[in-house]
Amino acid sequence: MDDDELNGNEPVVSVEIQGLSLFTHHGVEDAEREVGQRLVFDISFDVGDCDAIVTDRVEDTVDYAEVCQQVALAAQERSYRTLERLCSAVADHLIDRYEAESVTVRATKPEPPLPLPVEEVSVEIWKEAPQQDEDES
């Protein structure tokens, strides 16, 4: 046991996935949803009880490949008009699936269809997992 654990300060592990590129069908305009476009996702998890810091076992942490598959599933299973709603749906899906304290999801739309030249637009959302009552634990 290290000093942090003896003091009751369990380290929080942040797992990040950057630049997950997916072809999706989201957008305000009908054409965006019909034709589709590439979105780039950045995901961050805060995992409080990560045994891998002690065990060095992949099974004791978040499986990055599986997270990528779950983001793809959540982002491609239906169409949203706003990146805000899309990010919220992806975050909810990940919180439901993994034992994370919080999740940050950022969706970036390269070269969006706007009247002025813009390289990209993005939306980021941070969500905490619902707190469980002591009786439910």
Can you walk through the features of this model?
The structure is a single chain. The chain has 137 residues and is an alpha+beta fold. The chain has a single domain (9-128), classed as GTP cyclohydrolase I, C-terminal domain/NADPH-dependent 7-cyano-7-deazaguanine reductase, N-terminal domain (GTP Cyclohydrolase I, domain 2), CATH 3.30.1130. 31% of the residues lie in helices and 30% in strands. It has five helices and four strands; from the N terminus they run H-E-H-E-H-H-H-E-E. The chain has helices at residues 3-6, 30-35, 52-55, 64-76, 83-97; strands at residues 13-24, 37-47, 102-110, 120-128. It has a four-stranded antiparallel beta sheet. Helix 4 packs across helix 5 (83-97). The radius of gyration is 18 Å and the shape is elongated. The relative contact order is 0.18.
Topology:
Layout: H1 3-6, E1 13-24, H2 30-35, E2 37-47, H3 52-55, H4 64-76, H5 83-97, E3 102-110, E4 120-128
Antiparallel strand pairs: 1-2, 2-3, 3-4
Instruction: Tell me the name of the CATH homologous superfamily.
Output: GTP cyclohydrolase I, C-terminal domain/NADPH-dependent 7-cyano-7-deazaguanine reductase, N-terminal domain
Q: Based on helices, strands and strand pairing, what is the structural class? A: alpha+beta
Shape: elongated
Order of helices and strands: HEHEHHHEE
The main sheet orders its strands as 1-2-3-4
Number of DSSP-assigned strands: 4
Rg estimate, integer Å: 18 Å
Low confidence ranges: none
- Output mean pLDDT: 86
What percentage of residues falls in helices of 4 or more residues? 25-40%
| Total count of helical runs of at least 4 residues | 5
User: Span between N and C termini?
Assistant: 24 Å
Biggest β-sheet, characterized?
4 strands, antiparallel
Strand content: 25-35%
User: What is the total domain count?
Assistant: 1
CATH class: Alpha Beta
- Classify the fold: give the CATH topology: GTP Cyclohydrolase I, domain 2
Q: Under the CATH scheme, which architecture would be assigned?
A: 2-Layer Sandwich
